[in-house]
């Protein structure tokens, strides 16, 4: 009985390890999180206090809801290079991508981008870029002044 139980546990552990290795090999980001903008502190995208947990890392998706600026909350502004896995701007939400000029700064979305609110792409220079590798769904407003938008997917 003891030997049978020991073999059963070993087989279960082996299957669990094999499943985890398969998931990791698939390229799926197991640790990715959805970061939700709350905007209670400032317009600074990189300020962790403006997010439900922390500001997005490269494997995370970002969701920008309507935060009601009249109620004392702030809409986000990205002014430096950033890479995220996906972006959703909800109806009433607003995102400004300003990217300070001088060093070819890029806002990269390595997945889908869905806009039902407003995205302002107003970089300071012509060399700054917005790169989108996934599907771009725009049911809102996209304002563009300079810089370049690349679709890589």
Short summary:
With 153 residues, the chain is an alpha/beta fold. It has one helix at 2-25, and strands spanning 34-36, 61-64, 77-78, 82-84, 86-89, 94-97, 106-109, 113-115, 118-121, 129-132, 136-138, 141-144, 148-151. The termini are far apart.
Structure report:
- With 153 residues, the protein is α/β, with parallel strands linked by helices.
- Helix content is 16%, strand content 30%.
- The strands form three sheets. The protein has a five-stranded parallel β-sheet with strand order 1-2-5-8-11, with no helix packed on it. Strands 3-6-9-12 form a four-stranded parallel β-sheet, with no helix packed on it. Strands 4-7-10-13 form a four-stranded parallel β-sheet, with no helix packed on it.
- The longest helix is centred in the N-terminal third of the chain and has 24 residues, at 2-25.
Q: Largest sheet at a glance? A: 5 strands, parallel
Computed structural class: alpha/beta
Unreliable spans: 19-30
Topology order in helix (H) and strand (E) letters: HEEEEEEEEEEEEE
Helix content: 10-25%
What is the number of beta strands? 13
The spatial strand order of the largest sheet comes to: 1-2-5-8-11
Q: Rough shape?
A: globular
How much strand content do the residues show? Answer: 25-35%
The gyration radius over C-alpha positions equals 20 Å
Instruction: Report the mean per-residue pLDDT as an integer.
Output: 84
Enumerate how many helices there are, as a single number: 1
N-to-C span: 56 Å
């Amino acid at each position: 009985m003891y030997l049978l139980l020991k073999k059963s546990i070993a087989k279960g552990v082996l299957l669990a390890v094999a499943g985890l290795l398969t998931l990791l090999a698939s390229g799926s980001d197991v640790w990715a999180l959805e970061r939700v903008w709350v905007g209670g502190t400032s317009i600074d995208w990189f300020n962790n206090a403006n997010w439900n947990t922390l500001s997005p890392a490269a494997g995370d998706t970002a969701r920008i809801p309507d935060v009601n600026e009249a109620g004392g909350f702030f809409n986000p502004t990205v002014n430096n290079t950033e890479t995220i896995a996906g972006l959703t701007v909800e109806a009433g939400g607003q995102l400004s991508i300003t990217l300070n000029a001088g060093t070819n700064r890029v806002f990269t979305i390595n997945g889908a981008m869905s806009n039902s609110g407003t995205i302002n792409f107003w970089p300071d220079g012509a060399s700054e870029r917005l790169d989108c590798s996934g599907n771009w769904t725009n049911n809102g407003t996209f304002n563009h002044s300079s810089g370049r938008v690349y679709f890589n997917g």
